[in-house]
Sequence to fold (295 residues):
Amino acid sequence: SSEIFDFYKFGARRLRCAPFLRTGLDFCRAVCIIKSRKRNEDANMDEIRISHVEKSYTTLSTDLVIGGAKRPSRTRKVLQDVNLTFPAGKLSVLVGRSGCGKSTLLKLLAGKEAPDAGEITLPEGWHTALLSPEPYVITWTNVRQNVAMASGVGKTPEERYEHALEYVRLVGLEDYADLSPVELSTGMKQRLGLARVLASQAELLLMDEPFASLDFITRAELQNQVLQLQKNMPRTIVLVTHQLDEALLLGQSVTVMHELGKTETFDLSHIPYPRDLSSPELLRLREAVTEACRR
Fold:
């Protein structure tokens, strides 16, 4: 059965009116329900579907309240009626102005936050892993053990430890496998984060500006590494970036997100790797994507 975040049928409007669900944590616990459905035509689908998704954030005023008065609040809508699909086994890129909801969408896909309304549907049995600019690593152990502890392969710690070396080699850290994360450079730590994500065996990899803090040489090396890994062991990747060159070099599709999550998608799946940014086709796409971002 498919795993579906279903908010319309659960009655999100009714929940928002319930006083005991006013806190964000209680609301997420109440509405973020993963439901099982009987096998149907969606059970073997080969894409991630985002249907009519909405997300708002409410913040309370810090003003002093006296005499039981209600504390003022402000609600900001980030996503409104977002509809997107990401094909399985492809690398899809999200771009757009800051504040348009790109990172919020990744958090919803990762299950870290719950939409206020709508559906997010993944193929049956899929899991997600999120890689951020500052990846989560375990500081008190070494590189190889870090990867082993994130590994989804192997029934025993010994088996996971053996499998970990494969992913350490994939990201080029085999010579540093015995070092702790505090001994690694920023680029090496990002490679370690990538190895942990790959070792998790998640079918959907979510990357939120994973190379933002890197110098241009290390950034290019990791971009090439992602493409090589995608060639050898294809995963479904959704990557957020503010760098248009990165989007054009990596993406099999580039989706421009506008305010409230309105979208426009460009298909690049017919353009082979490696890509030349000076080619006429990519120059035309650069102009079209730039114009779309300005609208």
User: Anything to note?
Assistant: The CA atoms of residues 20 and 74 lie 19 Å apart. Residues 1-44 have pLDDT under 50 and may be disordered.
